[in-house]
Amino acid sequence: MTRRPPTLSDVARCAGVSYATADRVVNGRAGVSEKAARNVHAAIEALGYVRNVAAANLSQQRLYRFAIVLPSGSNAFFRRVQALFAEAAARLLSDRISLSVESVEAFDAEALTARMAALAESRLDGVAVVASDDARTASAIAALRARDIPVVTLVSDVPGSQRNAYVGIDNVVAGRTVGRLIRMAHGGRNGRVLPVVGALSARDHAERLSGMREVIGDTFEIAPVVEGRDRFELVEALVGQALAEDPAITTIYSAGAGNAGLVRLLEALPPDVARPYVFLHELVPHSRRALEEGRIDVIIDQRPEEEVARVVEHLTLLADRRELVRTDPIVPTIFVRENLPQVQADALEQAG
Amino acid sequence: MTRRPPTLSDVARCAGVSYATADRVVNGRAGVSEKAARNVHAAIEALGYVRNVAAANLSQQRLYRFAIVLPSGSNAFFRRVQALFAEAAARLLSDRISLSVESVEAFDAEALTARMAALAESRLDGVAVVASDDARTASAIAALRARDIPVVTLVSDVPGSQRNAYVGIDNVVAGRTVGRLIRMAHGGRNGRVLPVVGALSARDHAERLSGMREVIGDTFEIAPVVEGRDRFELVEALVGQALAEDPAITTIYSAGAGNAGLVRLLEALPPDVARPYVFLHELVPHSRRALEEGRIDVIIDQRPEEEVARVVEHLTLLADRRELVRTDPIVPTIFVRENLPQVQADALEQAG
DNA sequence: CAGGATTTGATAGACGTCTATCAAAATTCG
DNA sequence: CGAATTTTGATAGACGTCTATCAAATCCTG
To answer: Which whole-number Å values give the CA distances from A50 to A26, A221, A325, B90, in the listed order?
Structure first.
């Protein structure tokens, strides 16, 4: 009934060669005649042989060593990413995968480059990095690749560089998605959108805005963009000012961080007047609460859980010099009040 | 620098006991003094020992045998689920996991029960089943459990039964989510919703409707429910009739299957009149095309890819008598035209 | 067909865990 | 205290793959 899966010895026997020869074939070592190789491959096919990875890893004492470089600071999203990596690290220990999660000062390309140079010196099987799109970063990536260390960019890409893969959302797509929802929310009527970003010079924020613009069309009005530097006090002050000065605003689209300030502002709004629609990015404790309490309408999330899983998957495959699966970008996910995921245990921890 | 992860021998040495004793402790075998056990646990803690699963599985020649029971028939969603399981099966072979994907006639509780009874006889490590919520199914599940075979329900649950876990969405949540989007689409105004289901007696469809009702509130009107039996010709005919007779309809919410008929109807609509908003479930080739062409507005998807991954994860953990992680329900995912995932290779295949 | 190169076979040890056995030591109990 | 019981130690073989070595067989080439 349940028969034992074929081993390489079975393959060898079936192919009429010795174990040594079969082994030479499957591990691509030299010194095998073409005929023997053909026989072995035929036997593999016939028996449906698949290598037992458990045994292979065991014999090789394979140990994957990956480094994850995240920006430090108080940004709630990256705190969540960090927590997810920490959790993954604990789980992956039993698979002989060790993740070293490091952080460098946010927006400090100098520090990031230095850190990456240091990583190039240490013996690693792969690096994932939240990169800034910057020539120095690109050459730091090149340096890692020169040492044969695979590199995956995370959340923010460096398109021209030699990174092996990018794990994250397409920000234009995210912006377009928000554009569609803004149109839906206006039910065919026009409106006036207040865009809030960290800085217009940040490529991801700019891409989100332009994606949104694409979809809402020319008949919508767009108020002057607020640049909140991703700092919540500044966001709170500037958006408050914009709302006060421009009562025609029907929608706020916050494409950057610092949304704690936006939430605080919304909490302080008089309850009798209708508030504008609010769309923002990243499901974190304060944005979640705001959505639950009906102070905002939609959160666009890049599903950091999925991103973390993919980073590990990619790094492992790259370390084995295998082909990547699932290289399509992460899909921006739409959360309304009603389809919020249950709060996970680890999220509770980080809130406490 | 990279030091070898500790083995059980290291633990034994550190605890001052023999390998045999350490082994007795970690494998919960009898005949160990309390003191020795304490020492071993302390050593495990101190060294950060984690069992090498590769080695363990190897030594035990562990082979996981799971059966997946899906409804047969032409339903596009289940065809997709089936394709995903087939793909997973190929991938999992190298992890010594064998999935046998079987199908039984849809809606035939008799056949399903018989199949499950047969599975109870064969030597299996777990079963996943798209169950009908039905007393006979519940007792078939009980029979499997009696043979110590874990059971996971998939897509459709049997709440009162002894199933170990349910992998799927909460249909009330899905309906609420649609309700929220319907409200958004009406931009504060009221409307008239035409609900389309397979049958009102189908619990999942009914739950979706009631979730939707909860959120849209009393000021919305709801037209008489169309029961399309999940058959696309019937859906096409009945919805066409309803739209012709009731021009006040602003929104169609199709909570069931047979949406190919709905799409065909929408394609035939005169292009000059504004069509109602359309919300439906499950991202499959025809619904995707309709969304891309702007004939419908939103697809609520239960992410079968994630469900398949979770089923495998759960079955493996259950087979090892370990604790389940991630028992929270799957989150219904909102797709608009702009955030559709890229078409996967396997999806292309199945379309061809 | 001799000499050299290439291909093949046989085999041994390692990886870390599991299972099992047997004898030695420590503990309990009458 | 001696006998019965429980706890420990030592160790061996298996799982399937990888690496390595060495000798034997086969293949070219002149």
So the answer is: 11, 60, 19, 10
Chain A contact present for B93, CB below 8 A: yes
Q: Does A219 touch chain B (CB under 8 A)?
A: no
Contact B185 A187 (CB under 8 A): yes
How far is Cα A60 from Cα A56, in angstroms, rounded to an integer? 6
Decide if B174 and A339 are in contact by the 8 Å CB cutoff.
yes
For the CA of A15 and the C1' of C2, the distance in angstroms is 33
- SS3 assignment, position A48: coil
CB-facing half-sphere around the CA of B146: CA atoms within 13 A: 11
Which sequence spans correspond to the domains of chain A?
8-59, 63-168+304-328, 171-301
**Strand D close to A26 by CB, under 7 A:** yes
Q: Along the 352 residues of chain B, how does pLDDT read in single tens digits?
A: 456 889 999 999 999 999 999 999 999 888 889 999 999 999 999 999 999 988 998 998 888 999 999 999 889 999 999 999 999 998 888 788 999 999 999 888 899 999 999 999 988 999 999 998 889 999 999 999 999 899 999 999 999 999 999 999 999 999 999 999 999 999 888 999 999 999 999 999 999 999 999 999 999 999 999 999 999 999 999 999 999 999 999 999 999 999 999 999 999 998 878 899 999 999 999 999 999 999 999 999 999 999 999 999 999 989 887 778 778 889 999 999 999 998 865 544 444 3
Check: CATH 3.30.470.30 for A8-59? Answer: no
CB contact under 8 A, A328 and B342: yes
CATH number listed for the domain at residues A63-168+304-328? 3.40.50.2300
Rounded CA–C1' distance between B60 and C9, in angstroms = 30
Please state the pTM of the whole predicted model: 0.90
Are the Cβ atoms of B173 and A65 closer than 8 angstroms? no
DSSP string, B255-282: -SS-HHHHHHHHHHS-TTSPPPEEEEE-
CA–CA gap between residue B336 and residue A144 (Å, rounded): 39
Superfamily of domain B62-168+304-328: Response regulator (3.40.50.2300)
- A21 CA → C12 C1’, Å: 16
> Which residues of chain B lie closer than 8 angstroms to A184, CB-CB?
181, 184-185, 297, 336
Beta bridge partners of A168: none
Kindly give the pairing relationship between strand B97-104 and strand B333-335.
unpaired
CA distance, residue A109 to nearest chain B CA (Å): 28
What CATH number has the domain spanning B8-51?
1.10.260.40
CB of A240 closer than 8 Å to CB of A266? no
CATH class of B171-301: alpha beta
Domains A63-168+304-328 and A171-301 equal at CATH topology level: yes
